[in-house]
């Protein structure tokens, strides 16, 4: 009897997991079920190159169709898994059909957090998650028109940067006292606020949206203090929620994500999970859930090995990036619990510096702005727990490379 592995979700994790299964020796069928009409595609360029019109949906594909064909990977697109029957080892599809599995992989990712504000259903009010969202947003881009971004996180700021390049007047509305408040130190938030203002974006912090107004199509946003701002295009970016409902209904352990071990196994030995939807152990930061492409890719490799009965624990240092204007922000590690920030370079002028996050003198994370070498070296410092003197980090004359030379002696 041929064995079958079903992968739920045609995500970044799925695009890696399916080919990795073959590499690990899986001989049977591999079926990927995805609710969008597209093969797995790169999501980070959506708010950048795709929105700008520099890339087509075909350019976004992680792998070409024939690459999957050569590996005998089947796709069931535009279809959704609505239930998992662990006893019968089958999944139920939205159209009522069921598929039997020997092994199951959950790569269900996240969905956008929505807002329940009056007028949120108006034409011109958008969320940003998939290709179809951007296609809708693009129809409402007008040079000289007014756009408002609700949420000053990475997605919000990246979208603001692109809409400015497309000639729109852009306002960013953030509830917190600063942009990127959940993810960076005040020093880094201040830098991004300065850059966006230099580029002509109106950044407003400590504000709350009350409602959207318009006649069929959005025309303005009204804030809680009564301020009304013109907006013919609104993009809401207030975070995401992990898609755990399928796993939860099937009785798997769930806790702000599908709970997995270091090999991506769930509480059912025949089911793995990988990507943004998982809560997994990290050797550096305890139990974490990450929303990042590198995490989805590396964890998927561990999951594929586990399905083939091999232990290849996933222990990568988390890393992320964001592109805004001429800025490449690269982040290594997670800064949760930091007690000191050391800045290397100048952040009040120019567009290049690094912010190191330390806890009790140990490097937890770093935000590198147009400093690729600082990023590469810091990633190693975190992974190898190399001891360092915070004063040296701030000194531009001090070579970060020398940290490894001293560590080796």
UniProtKB/TrEMBL annotation:
Residues 5-300 form the FAD/NAD(P)-binding domain. GO terms for molecular function: dioxygenase activity; ferredoxin-NAD+ reductase activity; oxidoreductase activity, acting on NAD(P)H. The keyword Oxidoreductase applies. It comes from the Bacteria. The keyword Flavoprotein applies. Pfam families: Pyr_redox_2, Reductase_C. GO terms for cellular component: cytoplasm. It is an enzyme of class 1 (oxidoreductase). Its cofactor is FAD. InterPro entries: FAD-oxidoreductase/Apoptosis, FAD/NAD-bd_sf, FAD/NAD-binding_dom, FAD/NAD-linked_Rdtase_dimer_sf, Reductase_C. Keywords: Dioxygenase, FAD, Flavoprotein, Oxidoreductase. Its EC number is 1.18.1.3. Residues 319-403 form the Reductase C-terminal domain. This is 3-phenylpropionate/trans-cinnamate dioxygenase ferredoxin reductase subunit.
